[in-house]
Amino acid sequence: MKIVSNIQPENVRKIQELIGKKSYKDINEFVRIAVENQLSLELSETNQFNARLSSSSLTSDISSIIEKLRIDNSNSLIVEMSEPEYKDIKPSAVIEEKDIWIWGQINKILPVKFNTRYLFNLLKDGKESIDLGEFYRKASELGRDFGIAMLHLDKQNNRKRDERFSTGFPIGEEKSKSFARFCSQFIGFRRTDEILSGALFILKLANLKLENKKLHIGITKSGLQFAKIRNPLFDENLTDKNLSEEEINFYLNHIIQKVPGEATTFYLILNLINKEVREGYDLNIKIKNIVPSTWTDDFINTQRVGAISRLYELGLITKSKTGKFVNFDMSDRGREYLEKLKQDKVKYANNT
After folding, report:
1. Which of 3, 132, 146, 207 could form a disulfide with 215 if both were Cys (CB 3.0 to 4.6 A apart)?
2. Where do the domains of the chain lie, and which CATH numbers do they carry?
3. CA-closest candidate to residue 111, choices 41, 51, 182, 180
4. Which of the pair, 177 or 48, is modelled with greater confidence?
């Protein structure tokens, strides 16, 4: 797609100077990187909210927020709900479950953990499920308070955008839009064609049922296991990491066993990085040769960016900058996990 734009002569001169210094290969590369950087900035709710954040923004004391998330060691009765079947989450264009990529905007695991734990805590009185609308409301409100608290920690620790604990939580200035995004992406919903979408359902940590003509959400066996694992922020009063080793190991084993689409995605990208394909644009080109032809370049980029973010949070890849470019590399854990995926002989995408 070609777009014609007028650029001030002074800016053209500066761009040409940068190209002359070999900072960029040509003007096309400069424009592409500038556009990607601006889109990342505009789409980051954290950045939008930072400018107006003050110490008075916390709506609840952090201890009262954490108390609602802390694991209860009492012998609570939890009634598990059956997990979604493939037919419940299968988009019409997808043939095999291994081809279901998690939506790229679901770019962090911590909000998934948050919602799984909070659902678990709300069901401790023995109920199998609660009204979905009620859970949306409660999870969004608590998620906003928690996210703002995490944003303060992010600022105090000078965390870079990819490392922020507040990412994914509903902390945007437009509360209703922020809540809607958080619920649709990090909880989930039933589409008009009755297919389930969203993190908790695609990951098979929760399910929906119709009760008295209203949708209710309940936790699955896998969701119960994930919810019970202690979290550094919720249970240990630690602020230097957002997921425990046990949580990371659970997720990585869980997707092999239950979520082949996520395992396929991780295999594909890790395998490409292992083959020296380490820059985002180059990864997009390789991925385009593998995914369905109906995927646009923008969609491929969204999916790749989201998967990279999840891989980074789970410690499977590292990042470094060479000039203006971000390069990805394998961590030791990433290499081990790639070997595990190969050894498990799951059917992954071809041509990698």
Report:
1. 132
2. 64-97+106-235 (no CATH), 259-352 (1.10.10.10)
3. 182
4. 177
